Amino acid sequence: MKTYQKLTLSLLTICISQQLYAETTDVQVVKENEDTPTTTLDTIVITAGKIERTSQDTVDSVNITTADQIQDDPSLDDFTDILQKAPNVSVTNETSFTIRGISRTGSGGGAADTFSVTVDGVSQNYMANQPGIISTWDLQQVEVLRGPQSTTAGRNALAGAMLVKSKDPEFEQGGKVQVGYGTDNTYQLALANTGAITDKLAYRISTEHKHTDGHYTNNVQNKDDWNSQTNTSIRGKLLYEINDDSDIMLTASHVDYDRNGIRSSIHPTKRINADNSPVYFDTDVTNLSLEYNNYLTDNWSLKSTTGYQDLTFDRESDRDGAAGDARHNNDRSANNWSEELLFNYDNDDNIKAVVGLYATEGEFVNQLETLNVPYSIRGFNILADYTTHQTDEYTNYAVFTNIDYKVNPNLTLIGGLRLDYDKRTIKADPNAKLVKGTGIPPIDAFAQGIINTIGGDFDADNTQKVLLPKIGFDYAWNDNLNTGIVYQRGYRPGGVSANVVTQSSHEYDEEYTDNYEFSLRMKNDDFSLASNLFYTDWKDQQVYVSGKSGLPGDISVVNAGKSHLYGIEIETAYQITPELELTGGIGVVKTKFDEFIDNGVDYSGKEFDYARQLTANAGATYRSPEGWFIGGYATHQGKGWEDLSNTAKIDTYTLVNLKAGYEADNWGAYVNVNNAFDETYIANTLSYNLPDTYELGDPRTLGVTVNYEW
Asked: What pTM does this model have?
């Protein structure tokens, strides 16, 4: 058993023992049941825009998931599950998802990410967003902002931004323990505990150990626990109240995520894997953040957030997914630090504003080795090895402001501006060699000549400065109805493209989107509706263009694309009775390349790859006065294309998840069924395997969960 697993079980035992001891003393804490039904929908405060606004006053398109919603929905096990239920958001593969049809790398290519993910103030490398890493255990709120957020989130927010917030320490003693077990030896042990150390210092510690044997069988290695996954995480927080007007909080977390095998099947409807060699993935993520808050005056406040992340990723896998000897070995590491200073002004009458300073530096190292891989060069089949060591370093500084100015009780003007400086440096040293030729000397000599072109050292950098505006207004027709119109510019920095085959490098420019958005907000005590209608014009689009050799690495990033997209998001909630609440959402997006030519192929008029045109969700929860709970939740992912040629369709699917149980004042017991109708669908086609293999969605699973609070 690993050290973190032992620590998890030890903390679980200690805290349960402390609680049992506390119950034998004369001091007892009576906690009010927070699950008491109410006829009033909660007011939710959104923080990702740097100015605190209620959901009613926010013109941005935001999907919000609260701790109560996580508790109610059995499918919300990690961060990617939350993304999957948000309208116009879709998970595409292990390291990417789309927002309004735009993937992490952008449709067609690009170096920097198109959206940012922040966990407790720490910017996350995309490898830290793999399914299974960011657990929903002990989270307070997740905000998913769709559309450009470049004036506040900067370099990686062309498509959107996500903010994950865990629960903070409390000075009142409390905690929760949860145990679950389900299909395919899937189990969870989780604990959260909080309380006061002194009258000014409070702590919170949460830990979780999860495991599943997975749903795949390897019929070559005779393993029925192929793609087993184990996640052990621990997070600690210390909150120190300096005085009535200031506090400081330290957060430290570590995740150890191990996966054996891969979600890859040789069959489009059966979970059968044919890898003939061991496969494992090991990801370790450490986050540190220090947050300082000071209410300087009645109107001014200061918030400083310092964040640091260290990530390592180790992978060994079967490159061809079959009986050959091809291997894929990959070591990645990433680290970044950031500092953000926010000066907020709120005079309670007509002005809310923020002035911010931001700085970050980071490095991403990718060591790749592919061995004995089949390639086709000008129609001839060979085996070759390919290795590369690439380092991507970046520095980013920014100053920004956002202002809400209330002209009168109904009309609020919205403005924002960001001055952004970005520098990126890329270093690479690729190498390739012929392992097995055709046996025909002239042909092998020709193949060897092409492979010999791969090699050399690259070292190039790119620097740019941009100015990003935002302007609009929000109009409150009455206390229950708001409409708004906003224009803002999205941005992704340029960089350096190094083609290892042609042994050349060049700079490519930053790209921009012009985003126009109309918002509608309706809310009363028992009903809410939020809708955003949008149009985005994408210029100087960064896209990959392929070379003619067919060799790995013969691609370049250029500003050769132009496109547009438009659509709508609608989300609603209705508290019908104190016991029954209905929720729903729908997203529609249409994407189109206006200009994009790659290797002589014109993709003009085509849709973005993995841009699902329709996404939707619906849910119902019922809590009886006697404590019985039942919930049903459905999500739908509509049609799209796996390729830029729009010839390979993505599977559409609808999943239904059910949960029922009993809730007392301080404990609950539940039974849940995910994918209740056992729908089989292809979540992703893994085209790097030869031949293609399929990543299938999870089958129907059954689980039992028990939790206890104090």
From this structure: 0.88
